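quick one, 456 residues, struct below
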Amino acid sequence: MAGKGKLLIIDDNVELLFALQLFLKPHFAKIDTIKNPNQLLSQLEVDEYDVYLLDMNFKAGINSGNEGLYWLNRILDFDSNACVVLITAYGDVELAVKAMKEGAVDFIQKSWDENKILSTLLSAYKLRNSKLEIKGLKEKQKQINHQINKNTQFVRGNSKGMLDVFRTVEKVAATEANVLITGENGTGKEVIARELHLLSHRKDQVFVSVDLGSLSENLFESELFGSKKGAFTDAKEDRMGRFELASGGTLFLDEIGNVPIHLQTKLLTAIQNKQIVPVGGNSPVEVDVRILAATNCNLLEMAADGLFREDLLYRLNTITIELPTLRERIDDIPELADFFLQKYADQYNKGECTLEKSAIKKLSQYSWPGNIREFQHIIEKSVILSDTKKLSASDVLIGEGFQLSKKILDSFNLTDNEKLLIEKAIKHTGGNMSLAAKELGINRSTLYDKIKKYDL
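---
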């Protein structure tokens, strides 16, 4: 630590100022002293300090410490990351506790204990560096969030269903209410979750999304709650879970309906107590997260069938937002088509592209089982393969090569049939694993297992 940091000492004892300056000189790059605290604010305008050593009492006969507390608050008003160590001739424990609550980082007596003085000030300097590092990381996170949010554009549309959705979003975004977002796959549930986050007071904090449907039961706890080194075979270091990563911000729990009933209890406990215990840990960790969840399942029916905990459901659905399917918002298709057309025309350097009326009509007449996600994929594919900037109905490639065959295979081998069906489902949904799993009537983790089994 030698030769680092800037220290300001405020004390009315001239001899003490001289002695401290002489003793601490080898350990700080710069040391300034002030005898009269009334000069403090003007000094703060001139220079910036890492550590402050502040006397508690300046007027003769007054030992309350109120002067020190007053100037402590003035320093913190000027710099919220300031590290202030208070010093007094009176070892008042209650005063020390009060000072720490007001924002002091430590408290020492005026008895000349060199080791205590030096260790306390160097610890304060180390804390100052940590505070500045955290401040820098938060600023970087804000910039990253801003860039992500700037690139996360979408079309609200003017259909009644979407207008109702956004009226609700605007009402609840600024609250701390948990929100359950429901709707078919591909309707834009994560987009709505991000919009809720952006309109909340947590917008400058992190938005963490976790796909619960893709988590195996073995990884569920460690992914959500973190793990300690040595907790299991591959735990070579402490690992932070999604709850702790999202603390201060928003945690989006996608595919909440896929969580097995025996794991729902642990999720409920974390949400209810605002605490998590990492795998292999003993001490609870406080977390401050707003929970947004999404599902394409009917959780009320699942709860009635004993597949979903009612108490967890009530924790999640303080507010429920149901997203309409694309076939229920046909009026939005021209606006959506133009948005994605320009997005992919720019992405693939196609210049200014337009859609003819015949193309819009074709898009409007399709049923869109994959909703917005399928729509987006079709527009992207059409832009890539089209040789013209003005796309007609024939340029809009809906369903080509994606319809499932209704022919029964000559072979009665279950493995052959299962592999072929999985291949067709994946192709039919454009690689959308959630939609493919739904078409096949299985969950995503089972689909991933079969993909590995058949080396697809």
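The chain has a mean pLDDT of 85.
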